[in-house]
Amino acid sequence: MADHFFTFSIITLSLFVVASSGGLESELVADLLTLQAESKSGVIHLDDRTVSKFLTSPRTPRPYSFLIFFDAANFHDKPELRLRELRREFEIVASSFITNHNSSNTKLFFGDIEFRESQSSFQLFGVNSLPHVRLVGPTAKSLKDDSDVMDQGDFSRLAESMAEFVQYRTKLTVGPIHRPPALSKMQLGLITALLLLCLPLVAKRIFAGETLLHDPKIWLSGAVFVYFFSVSGAMHNIIRKMPMFLVDRNNPNKLVFFYQGSGMQLGAEGFAVGFLYTFVGLLLAFVTHVLVYVKDATAKRLAMLFTLLVSFWAVKKVILLDNWKTGYGIHGFWPSSWN
Amino acid sequence: MAAPETSTAAVPTLYTYNTLRNAFGGVLSFFILLLIGVMAFSIRLFSVIKYESVIHEFDPYFNYRVTQFLAKNGIYEFWNWFDDRTWYPLGRVIGGTVYPGLTLTAGTIWWLLNSLNIPLSVETVCVFTAPIFSAFASWATYLLTKEVKGTGAGLTAAALLAMVPSYISRSVAGSYDNEAVAIFALIFTFYLYIKTLNTGSLFYATLNSIAYFYMVCSWGGYTFIINLIPMHVLLCIVTGRFSSRLYIAYAPLVVLGTLLAALVPVVGFNAVMTSEHFASFLVFIIIHVVAFVYYIKGILSPKMFKVAVTLVVSVGLAVCCAVIAVLIALVASSPTKGWSGRSLSLLDPTYASKYIPIIASVSEHQPPTWPSYFMDINVLAFLVPAGIIACFLPLSDASSFVVLYIATSVYFSGVMVRLMLVLAPAACITSGIALSQAFDVFTGSIKFQLTGASSNTEVDAAETSSSTAESQTDAVKTEKPEETAKNRPSRKSKKKEREHGEKPSTKAKAEKKRLLALPLESSVISLLLLVLLGAFYVVHCVWAAAEAYSAPSIVLTSRSHDGLHVFDDFREAYAWLRHNTDVDDKVASWWDYGYQTTAMANRTVIVDNNTWNNTHIATVGTAMSSPERAAWEIFHSLDVKYVLVVFGGLVGYPSDDINKFLWMVRIGGGVFPHIKEPDYLRDGQYRIDSQATPTMLNCLMYKLSYYRFVETDGKGFDRVRQTEIGKKYFKLTHFEEAFTTHHWMVRIYKLKPPKNRIRGKTKKSKSKTSSTTSSPKRSGTKKKNPWQ
Q1: What family does this belong to (chain A) (predicted)?
Q2: Which domain holds residue B253?
Q3: In the A/B pair of chains, how many CB contacts fall below 8 A?
Q4: Which residue of chain A has the CA closest to B467?
C-alpha cells in the first residue's frame, strides 16, 4: 500500500512539474507557429535572440526539434556552394512538411540563420563551413555537440534526401514533396492564349509556303550551330555542370581556362576549341563558295592571306592544345632506315 | 544545268573524247576504290601484327562462342539454343535474345569458305569479319556520297571513312562485335534510301527494306535509321519538297521494313509497340494524307480544290486528333512512356545522370569533351562545317538528308561518347564533300591561270574546270527557281554533267559562265596546306590504329627499359580452368569475365556480361562483399566450385576487381540491404590500407585478392592503389587457393567442401561467427535457446 502511495505521489509530482513547464513550452510553440505562419515558405528566420529564446533557454527535453539551414547571403553568388539551390530545396521540404501535416505538427520546425546578422549563433553551433544543415533534437543540450549534421550525401538528391534524413532522425514522416510547378497557372494560361492567337497566322503561312522553315539559311545556321554546340562539348558542361573557368588555387587573381586531362573540360575551353573547329570550316566554305566570285584581285589576295593564316594558326593551336591536354604522343611510323 | 548535254550534242568529236575520258575515269575510280578497300582492311591489322590473331575484349567472346555453336550445329539449333552454361541455374535463351546479324554473317562466310575447300577456323573468320566489313562500309560511303555530290566527293569520303579512328576503334581485327557489321549496314541503308529518293525506283526501295532488315538483325542502333528517315521525310514535306519519289522511298520501307524487323526474335513486337518506332508510323500517316492532297489537287480545278481543302481539313483534323489521342493513350500507359532509358537519355541528356546510375556509370555513355572529337574524327572536325555549307549549295533531297544526318548524329554524339561511331560516317561524308570541292576550286584556279591567264582576262574567261560546286552554285545564284525545278527530274543529265565536271576540261567553253579563279600562289599554298592536313589525318589515324585501339585487352603488354613485357595471365587462367576442372563445375566471378570464361574455359558461370538479371548479379556482388563464411554459403547454395578474381596489385593493372569492388557493393546493396556502402568507406573514401574499415578488410574480395600477397615483396605494396595493404597476414577458412597466374592477375580459389557435422566443431564455429552476419540458411543448425 505504501508502495502504491509512493508511486502515486511521484506521478502527481511529475505531472505538476510537466504542467508548470508546459505552460511556458506551449507559449513557445504558439510563438513558433505564428512565426511559421508569417513566413512564406514556413521556414522561420532565426537570429541570435530567437536562437536563445527557442533553443538555448528552454530546458531539455524541448517539445520540438529544429532543422536549421545555415545561410550566408554573401556566398550566394558562389556556384560551387549551391547555397541558393539548397535553400530553395530546404524551403520545399519545409512547406511540404507543413502542408502534409496541415500546419498542426508542432514536433518539428524549420529555421534558417544568416551568417552576417547572427555570427555568434554560428559560433554557438560551431559551424565553419557551408552548406550546413543541422537538426537540433528535443534532448540536445549543447547545440554544438548534441545536434545532428546533415551529410553531403543527404543533399545529393535535394529535397527528397533531406526529407529522408528528417524521417530517419526524427521518426516524423515528411510525406510527398510538393514542388511548385515550373510554370504558374497564370503563365500557362498566357502561353496557351498566345499559342491560340498565333495558330491561324502560322497555319496561313504554312499553307502559303513562306515560313521560316522554307528558308534554307535558317536550316544552314541551325545545322552549323548544332555542330558548334556539340563539338564544343557543351553537353558535357551541362550534364556535369562544369563552370566556365576556375580560379587558380595558388594565385587567386589568375583564372584557369584550360584544364589538363582529357576526361574533363571547362566551359570556356570547350567553346573556344569548338569555335576554332567551326571557324576553320566556315573559312574553307567561304573560300570555295564565296571568294571565287569576288572580282577584285587584291581583295581576293588579302582574303586568301587572312584565311590561310587564321586557318593554319587555328589548326596548329588545336593540335598543340590536344597534345598538351591528353598527353598523347602522336607520331608517324616511318621506315626505320630514316632515323 | 543541261549545258554539258547541249555541248556534247553540238560537237561530236568532243562526245567521243568525253566518253573515253569517262571510261578512263570509271576505271580509275574502280582501282581507287579497290585500294581504299585494301587500305580499310589493312589498317585494321595492327592488332594481329602487334599481338596475334585473337578475339578481343569481352562481348566479342560471346559472339565468337555463338558463331562456333552456329557453325557446329546449324541455323535451326542456333535459333532454338538454350544456353545452360551461363546464368546458372537460370540459363539463357540465346536464339531469342541476340542480334543475330553478325553471327549469321560470319557463319555464312565460314560456311562459304569451307564449301570452297578453304579450311579456315571459325576464330580466323571472326577475327577478320570486322576489317572486311570496314572495306564494304567505305564502298557504301562512296556510293552514298556519290549520290549526293558526285564521284569526287564519293572517293574522298570513302578514303576518309576507311581510316576514321572512331570506326577503327570498333572494327580492328579481332573486335568481333555488332558494330563491325552494323556501320556498313547503316551506311548502305542510307545509300539505298537516297538512291530510291533520286531514282524513284521500287527496286531500290525493296532493296532498302532488305538492307534495313539486315541492320535490324545486326544492331540495336537501327532505331536511329527508323527515326532519321521519317524525320527527313517530314522535313521534305514541311519544306514543300514532297514528290512521288519520296513516297516510294518511304512507304515501302515502313511497311516492309517493319514486317521484316518483327521477324527478328529480339525485336519482335517491339517493332510496332515501342515509342522508338512511333515516329515512323506517324509520318507514314502524314505522307499518305499529303499524297492524297496532292492527288486531289491534280484532278480538281483550283476552285473545287479550295472547297475540297476545307472539307478534307475538317474531316482530316478530326481523324488526326483521334489517332493522336490513341497514340498518346498507348504511350502514356507504359511507365517510361514507351521509351527505353537509353533513348530517353538522348532526348533529355540529364535524364540518365538523374535517374539511371547504371547507364550513367558506363564509360561509353559519358558525354565527350572536345579532345574526344579530335581523337575520334581528328581534322574532319575542321572540315565538317564546310561540308554542311556545300550541302546547302544547292539543297537537294539527298543533300538535305546528309545535313539532317550530320546534325542529329553530332548532337547524339555530344550526349554519349559511344555514338561518335554513328557520327563518324556522317563526318566523313561531309568532309569528303568539302575536301573534294576545295580541291576542285584550287586545282581549277591553278589550271585556269596556267593555261588561260595569258590570253583571257580573269573575268571573261570561260571557266575551264567547272567543278560541280561551282557550276551548281552559280546556277543557284543566277537562276535559283529554275534550278531547283530541274535539279530533281534530270538525274541523268546531272550525272553526266558531274562526271564531266570532275576532270578539268578545256573543251567546255560553251559554258559561258562568269566563273572566276583564285590567285595562283594562294591556291598553290592552300592546296599544299590541305594536303598537309590530309597527311596529318593519315598519320593520326595510323597512330590511333596502331597504338590506341589495337590492344586486345586479353593480352596486355608493357614496354619498360628492359624490353617488352607480355601479360598473358587471362588465357593462362582460363586454360587452367579448362584443363584442371570438371566439365560441369561452376565458376563464379564478377560479370565482366563471364563471357570469357564460358568461351575460353568452357565452364558454367553464374553471371555474365549480358546483365539481364540484376538480382543474380547482386547475389554475386553480395557474396564478394560478405565475410568469408557468408560468402561461402552463398556460393555453395549456387553450386559454385571455383571463384575467380582479377587482381592487378602486383603488376599495376588498374581495371581489376578491387577497383570495381564498390560497384559490387552498390549493386549487391541495392537488392540485399544488409550490404551498406558506408561500411566499406572510411570517411567517404575508398581505401584498402591500414585505415580501411574492418568490413572492407574482412570481405571476401579483399581476402581473395590479397591472400599471400605479402609474400611477394614482404611489404604488401599495391601498385594500383599505390599503398601498402591494411591486413597482410591472414588465413582462409572456407576457400583454398587453387591457381594463381604468373603475374598474379587472375587468382582462382576453390570452395572447401562442407565440414563434417561433428557436434563440438559446429558449436565452436557457431560461437566464432555469431558476431558476424551469418546467412539465415544456416539458422536451421543453430538451436537458439533464449533462456540460456
Answers
A1: Belongs to the OST3/OST6 family.
A2: 198-337
A3: 193
A4: A288
Report chain A's C-alpha Rg in angstroms.
32
What is the structure's pLDDT at B579?
Answer: 95
CA distance A73 to A79: 13
What domain count does chain B have?
A: 2
* A175, pLDDT greater than 50: yes
Flag whether pLDDT at B475 surpasses 60: no
DSSP per-residue string spanning B723-770: EE-S------SSEEEEEE-TTSSEEEEEEPPPPP--HHHHHHHHHHHT
CATH assignment at residue B671:
3.40.50.12610
Question: What does pLDDT average to over chain A?
Answer: 78
Of B585, B273, B547, B270, the C-alpha closest to A326 is B547
CB contact under 8 A, A287 and B438: yes
How far is the C-alpha of B344 from the C-alpha of B349, rounded, in Å?
Answer: 8
Where is pLDDT greater, at A7 or B381?
B381
3-class DSSP assignment, residue B638: coil
Grid cell 538535305 — which residue? Answer: B400
Lowest mean pLDDT among A32-41, B412-421, B584-593: A32-41
For residue B518, count CB atoms less than 10 angstroms from its CB and return exposed for 0-12, middle for 13-18, buried for 19 or more. Answer: buried
In this prediction, residue A249 carries a pLDDT of 76
Long-range contacts of the stretch B492-495 (C-beta < 8 A, 24+): B493/B1, B493/B2, B493/B4, B493/B5, B494/B1
Within 8 A of B440 by CB-CB distance, chain A residues are: 288
Distance CA A99, CA A93 (A): 10
CA torsion through residues A40, A42, A47, A53, sign: positive
For the cut 60, the answer to whether the pLDDT of residue B781 exceeds it is no
pTM of the model: 0.76
ipTM of this predicted complex? 0.80
Report the pLDDT value the prediction gives residue B163, as an integer from 0 to 100: 93
**Residue B308 within a domain:** yes
B542 touches chain A (CB under 8 A): yes
Helix, strand or coil for residue A331? coil
Q: Is residue B453 part of a domain?
A: no
Phi and psi angles of residue B748, each rounded to the nearest 5 degrees, phi first: -115, 130
CB A71 within 8 A of CB A158: no
SS3 helix, strand, coil % of chain A, rounded to 5? 60, 10, 30
Strands (E), chain A: 43-46, 65-71, 108-114, 132-136, 148-149, 246-247, 255-256
- The answer to whether residue A199 scores a pLDDT higher than 80 is no
Q: Which band of pLDDT confidence, cut at 50, 70 and 90, is reported for residue A155? A: low
Amino acid at B735: F
Residue B507 has pLDDT above 90, yes or no: no
Within a domain: B417: no
Q: Among partner residues B407, B518, B536, which is closest to A226 by beta-carbon distance?
A: B407
Instruction: Please state the rounded mean pLDDT for residues B332-355.
Output: 62
Least confident of A287-301, A305-319, B395-409, B628-642: A287-301
Domain boundary among B337, B356, B377: B337
Q: With contacts defined as CB-CB under 8 Å, which chain A residues touch B409?
A: none
Give residues with Cβ within 8 angstroms of B78, minimum separation 6.
B66, B69, B70, B94, B95, B100, B103, B107
CA B724 vs CA A160, B649, B721: distances in Å? 40, 10, 8
Separation between Cα atoms, residue B196 and residue B254, nearest integer Å: 14
Question: Which of B156, B310, B359, B369 is the best substitution to test chain A (most A C-beta atoms within 10 A)?
Answer: B369
CB contact under 8 A, B434 and A281: yes
Rg of the Cα trace of chain B?
Answer: 32
Q: What residue has cell string 511540404? A: A96
User: Facing residues of A67 across strands?
Assistant: A110, A135
pLDDT of residue A212: 64
Q: Is the residue at B385 inside a domain? A: no
Q: Please state, in angstroms and as integers, the Cα–Cα distance from residue A87 to each residue in A39, A112, A158, B287, following that order.
A: 14, 9, 10, 51
